[in-house]
Amino acid sequence: MNNDQHPLLGALGLCRKAGKLLHGYDRVQENALRGKVALVLLTSDASERTVSHMKDTCDGIVACEQMPLTSADLAMLTPKPAAVFGVTDEHLAQLCAKYL
């Protein structure tokens, strides 16, 4: 299965349409620290530094997982490329987590 048919892509599209998807390091980090994010997702091509810092930030607060998708795969979801995504709805987060 190629990435444009990956079920996680569809789940993230649903999150975006529902207004429950955040993107960008600073925005996701800020909302995660406030407890407003149910799941943090990192692209497979996120830098080691980004992955390390975001996992440290989320430790003990919210699940932080790396996706099998790249920022290019997710380009249609955001106005500019992003390596960090946050799902703000618990049910949609569970749906996304199912495809990791």
Description:
With 100 residues, this protein is an alpha+beta fold. The protein has one domain: 60s Ribosomal Protein L30, Chain: A (2-Layer Sandwich). The protein has four helices and four strands. It has a four-stranded mixed β-sheet, sandwiched between helices. Helix 3 (48-58) links the parallel strand 2 (39-42) and strand 3 (63-66). Helix 2 (25-33) packs parallel to helix 3. 34% of the residues are buried.
List the helices and strands and how they pair.
Elements: H1 7-17, E1 21-23, H2 25-33, E2 39-42, H3 48-58, E3 63-66, E4 84-87, H4 90-98
Parallel strand pairs: 2-3
Antiparallel strand pairs: 1-4, 2-4
Helix pairs in contact: 1-4, 2-3
Keywords: Ribonucleoprotein, Ribosomal protein
InterPro entries: Ribosomal_eL30-like_sf (IPR029064)
Protein name: 50S ribosomal protein L7ae
